[in-house]
Specification:
heterodimer, A: 271 residues, alpha/beta, six-stranded mixed β-sheet, 11 helices, 24% strand, B: 329 residues, mainly alpha, two-stranded antiparallel ribbon, two-stranded antiparallel sheet, 13 helices, 4 strands, disordered C terminus
Chain lengths: 271, 329
């Protein structure tokens, strides 16, 4: 039983395959971590699922989402899925929110565009409820604030509220903690885990940060140069990495119980 | 908000006062003696002294300036029984008229020129910019880029004469320009203004096209536009709400400034087309060295720019929630 299954997914810019025939699957309610350095193709993978690739990119392979082949649907059908059944949380919450509208308006907008005939008032109530669920205090008041009036962590909570307001089956979080400071990162990860527990939504967590996936992910794929170098459960991969690249990646993380020595960079660079 | 407005108003008054002072100083110190000019060729020193006394030119600078300010606010009376009610901008001995009346007479036609031109250039600039942005790199974009380059490089007076030759003399699509009151013949009135509007608009429209194109292309690249798409929003809503509003806000505010500048008179265009507005008044007064009028027109232009600036700032804080009221004051 899978919610989303990608087979031979390929994203090409000109003559370069930035995602090169990768396979992965997400179970309903499960969490898949996609780990890799920058340039490994992880973000392009998420945009390929959403059908939001830049126009200069082409997509090949298959993405099956709950029985729907996403590479075959029309843009109109895809739009009905986007934001409703698959929602996305982006890296930088400040630039990802429109500075001209209140957060309430922006959350309600997602909600209303997928619920025909919902009144403004009902959408606003839904926005407040979503903000409540991501633990924004005084949601009833803060719903009328603008993005710049929130702190970084709170803005990411707003993004998550926007994502969960439509009760999606899958949430894709692309580096959701990278732009935040360390103390806030943990809170956001906890929140994502909580949202997943409460709503039963599956989660694809894309990150370069091994510490992030180790806390949240059930399954893991490790990407490099557009290819999957290792697949398995998080536990398996952390305790017994098979691929030399995964090994190197784990070794590159300084450990608090390690003797002080040189940091060990991963050999090679992005293709 | 109230405090912000009060602060801005105070700042505005200060700027206008300084403009007044500076302009007055320039004309007081640098200009040839108006009394000599008024007196003409066969002039005795006694006559010049008398004119000086009539105009108040024998007073020291500070007194003259204070008189001028007093005239602005409470009006003044010149010797010889000439009454100049507030706001008194001076008296033109060359035309024997109160300057304020001269300007008030000509302001409406200048406003018509400015409003029509602004409507036209906003329309052309925004539409042209949008087409360029949507067709980025394609033929339409390059074609419009060529047009804007031309529009920006051709000087106003060349364009005015060329258009007049083509449309009035050669093609005869437009009547020979003559002053017709709106009430007498609205069609003729409208036809008269088509060329001046176009000449003024083309220059502005060119830069607005480029600005709109750049702003729209930049905004479409913004992360929040990607977010809007990821929400599953309809493309027209993505455009209207998330791309156009941020892209066009700066354009609206710049348009406010440019419009305010034009209210001070379009010197070249009004002169070429023989439109009896503030711009032509300025041009005529400069050739005749009619100082009170030149000074008044200068002050008027400064006044519109300062007021326009303030209106734009207030507008901006209303449109863009990030401009926190009070901070930028």
């Amino acid at each position: 039983m899978t919610l989303l299954q990608a087979k031979g997914l390929t994203v090409t810019f000109g003559a370069t395959n930035v995602v090169d025939g990768i396979d992965f699957e997400v179970r309903p309610g499960g969490t898949l971590g996609i780990v890799g350095e920058s340039g490994s193709g992880k973000s392009m993978t998420s945009l390929a699922i959403m059908g939001l690739l830049p126009s200069s990119a082409t997509r090949a392979g298959s993405i099956d989402f709950a029985g729907t082949e996403l590479t075959k649907v029309t843009e109109r059908q895809m739009r009905a899925i986007r934001g409703d059944r698959i929602a996305m949380v982006f890296q930088d919450p400040l630039s990802s929110l429109n500075p001209y509208y209140t957060v309430g308006t922006q959350i309600a907008e997602a909600y209303r565009s997928h619920r025909s005939g919902v009144s403004r008032k009902a959408a606003r109530a839904a926005a407040i409820e979503a903000m409540d669920r991501v633990h924004i205090k005084d949601a009833g008041k803060r719903v009328d604030d603008y993005p710049h009036q929130f702190s970084g962590g709170m803005r990411q909570r707003v993004m998550i509220a926007m994502a969960l307001s439509t009760e999606p089956e899958l949430i894709i979080a692309d580096e959701p903690t990278t732009a935040l400071d360390v103390t806030v990162q943990a809170q956001i990860l906890d929140l994502l885990a909580e949202v997943r527990r409460d709503t039963g939504a599956a989660l694809i967590l894309i990150t370069h940060d091994l510490a992030v996936v180790s806390e949240v992910a059930d399954d893991l794929i490790v990407m490099r140069h557009g290819r999957v170098v290792e697949t398995g459960t998080a536990e398996q991969i952390f305790s017994d990495p098979q691929a030399p690249y995964t090994q190197a990646l784990l070794d590159a993380v300084p450990r608090i119980d390690d003797s002080i020595g040189d940091l060990r960079p991963v050999p090679g660079g992005p293709a | 908000m109230t405090r912000y407005v009060v602060n801005r108003l105070a700042g505005m008054v200060l700027v206008l006062f300084l403009v007044c002072l500076f302009t007055y100083m320039v004309f007081f110190l640098l200009s040839p003696d108006p009394a000599v000019q008024i007196c003409g060729k066969n002039c005795t020193p006694e006559r010049i002294d008398q004119i000086r006394a009539n105009l108040g030119l024998d007073e020291p600078f500070v007194t003259q300036f204070l008189n001028f300010l007093r005239g602005l606010f409470i009006g003044r009376e010149y010797e010889g029984g000439i009454n100049c009610p507030a706001p008194c901008l001076g008296y033109s001995f060359q035309t024997s008229q109160v300057v304020t009346d001269m300007i008030v007479q000509r302001l409406p036609v200048t406003a018509v020129v400015a409003v029509g031109a602004a409507v036209l250039w906003l329309l052309m600039g925004v539409v042209g910019g949008l087409i360029s942005a949507v067709q980025e790199g394609k033929f339409a974009d390059r074609f419009i880029a060529g047009l804007t380059l031309g529009g920006m490089s051709v000087p106003n007076y060349v364009l005015a004469l060329a258009l007049q030759y083509v449309f009035v003399v050669w093609l005869q699509w437009l009547p020979f320009p003559q002053a017709v009151p709106f009430a007498d013949d609205p069609v003729q009135w409208f036809l008269n203004f088509i060329l001046p509007w176009s000449v003024l608009a083309i220059g502005y429209a060119s830069s607005y096209t480029r600005l709109t194109r750049a702003n729209v292309i930049d905004t479409l690249d913004e992360n929040f536009v990607r977010t809007a798409r990821a929400k599953g929003l309809r493309p027209d809503l993505v455009w209207r709400r998330h791309a156009l509003r941020p892209a066009l806000t700066p354009i609206v505010t710049i348009a406010g400034m440019d419009f305010a500048g034009l209210l001070g008179g379009a010197l070249i265009t009004e002169t070429v087309f023989g439109i009896n507005g503030v711009g032509k008044l300025a041009a005529d007064s400069i050739t005749k060295n009619d100082q009170p009028v030149i000074m008044a027109v200068t002050l008027l232009a400064a006044f519109f720019v300062v007021v326009g600036n303030m209106v734009v700032d207030l507008l901006y804080s209303a449109i863009d929630p990030r401009v926190r009221v009070g901070v930028s004051a």
